[in-house]
Structure to design on (452 residues):
């Protein structure tokens, strides 16, 4: 069981709204295409956690959709029926990924994966003050060399106008302006990424109102390449830093640990970072932009900051209730006994923190073990599986319902920070990370009260 990746879900949603390609000569014959619908329903009906819902209204919709599919139904018609089917629960982590988009993940040999390693422009973006703005620029990247800076506003990618695209997305989501901006941002993020060595033309408006066009050659992403199930290869990175904060009782050390996905390849690095920071006075866990991953990692990561086997929440499945709990990490890789970190903890989230990141943040928040800063998370927090249909398309479908340590639902709601800290162009252009600053200020205040 795993929690799927938020960026894949939203990128697939963008693709679903595009004009579909016509059938090609190599496509399977129509009866096989219709079999995709039956295969999708079979997977859902066998595994979705709420059997009464499956056998009630959902089955009635399925029967109605199935009746419209002729034996010679086209690929587009079958995909449309499947998308209508998985829209019934109105939940995240139901998505159909076309076979051509999923093809990269089917290549199993390591040489092919390395050859298709994702590249980066060095730019990460966020919706800010009604714009799509540069949030971070990777040091040493082509974007950094071009002089692109946080707070710059992206107006065009190649020949695509961001303003025109925003109009189209908002028309398709008239009642959800926040969701439309998030979807638009995800599209921009996906376009900024791409194969290593490919060229991208980016037009920005800078802090002085100047419009500048840049030619960016994508370079390698920093981190470890991995793949999981039927998802495309991607790169995961974990980082740790230390800073000194001034309190009424003197200087104190605050560590920050962040990582870009919950996947086993990064576990050894994460463990090392957490053990290295055990002597810090305060800890910040930065989950901004972390789209989720493998639920099973929750036990080990939470065990670095919890010293008892305590529940972080539960999953309700077809067969029962699965509770996930902390696994206190009291022995490091050298075999030395180490008490879990006992100081105050802050967690940073934003609208691109999803799935396992939300399980962790809501669980820690519910236990009162951490204080959350930033902006409301994605609210896409349902465990799912991904499997191939007969045609090669991939279906992601929900397996369980989630509630946190207080019984709260995160799906559709998100993790709500105790201290909301929105992004602003003013802060970005001044080089200020307001959410990080707020977390450090809270830690300094807390440490001044708690430490002798």
């Amino acid at each position: 069981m795993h929690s799927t990746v938020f960026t894949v879900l939203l990128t697939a949603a963008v693709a679903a709204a595009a004009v579909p390609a016509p059938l090609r000569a190599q496509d399977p014959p129509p009866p096989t295409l219709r079999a995709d619908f039956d295969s999708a329903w079979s997977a859902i009906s066998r595994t979705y956690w709420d059997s009464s819902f499956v056998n009630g209204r959902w089955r009635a919709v399925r029967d109605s959709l199935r009746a419209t599919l002729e034996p010679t139904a086209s690929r587009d018609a079958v995909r449309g029926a499947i998308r209508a089917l998985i829209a019934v629960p109105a939940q995240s982590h139901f998505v159909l990924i076309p076979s051509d988009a999923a093809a990269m993940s089917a290549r199993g040999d390591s040489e092919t994966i390395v050859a298709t390693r994702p590249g980066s422009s060095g730019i990460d973006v966020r919706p800010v003050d009604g714009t799509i703005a540069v949030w971070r620029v990777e040091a040493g990247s082509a974007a950094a060399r071009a002089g692109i800076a946080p707070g710059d506003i992206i107006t065009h990618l190649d020949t695509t106008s961001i303003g025109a695209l925003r109009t189209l997305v908002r028309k398709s989501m008239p009642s959800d302006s926040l969701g439309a901006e998030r979807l638009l941002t995800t599209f921009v993020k996906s376009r900024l990424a791409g194969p290593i060595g490919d060229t991208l033309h980016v037009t920005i408006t800078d802090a002085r109102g100047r419009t500048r066009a840049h030619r960016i050659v994508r370079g390698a992403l920093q981190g470890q390449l991995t793949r999981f199930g039927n998802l495309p290869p991607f790169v995961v990175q974990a980082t740790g830093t230390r800073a000194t904060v001034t309190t009424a009782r003197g200087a104190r050390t605050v560590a920050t640990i962040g990582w870009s996905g919950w996947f086993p390849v990064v576990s050894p690095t994460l463990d090392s970072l957490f053990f290295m920071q055990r002597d810090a006075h305060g800890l910040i866990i930065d989950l901004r932009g972390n789209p989720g991953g493998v639920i099973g990692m929750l036990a080990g990561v939470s065990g670095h900051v919890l010293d008892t086997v305590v529940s972080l929440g539960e999953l309700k499945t077809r067969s029962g209730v699965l509770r996930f709990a902390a696994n206190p990490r009291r022995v490091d890789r050298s075999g030395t006994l180490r008490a879990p970190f006992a100081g105050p903890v802050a967690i940073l989230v934003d609208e691109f923190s999803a799935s396992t990141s939300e399980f962790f943040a809501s669980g820690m928040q519910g236990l009162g073990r951490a204080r959350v800063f930033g902006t409301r998370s994605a609210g896409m927090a349902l465990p799912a599986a991904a499997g191939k249909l007969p045609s090669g398309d991939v279906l992601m479908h929900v397996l369980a319902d989630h509630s946190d340590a207080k019984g709260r639902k995160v799906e559709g709601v998100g993790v709500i920070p105790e201290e909301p800290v929105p992004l602003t162009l003013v802060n970005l252009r001044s080089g200020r990370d307001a959410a990080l600053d707020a977390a450090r200020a809270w830690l300094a205040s807390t440490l001044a009260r708690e430490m002798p």
The first strand starts at residue 95 and ends at 97. Confidence is low (pLDDT under 50) at residues 1-31, 102-115. The chain has three domains: 6-101, 118-220, 224-382+399-450. The radius of gyration is 23 Å.
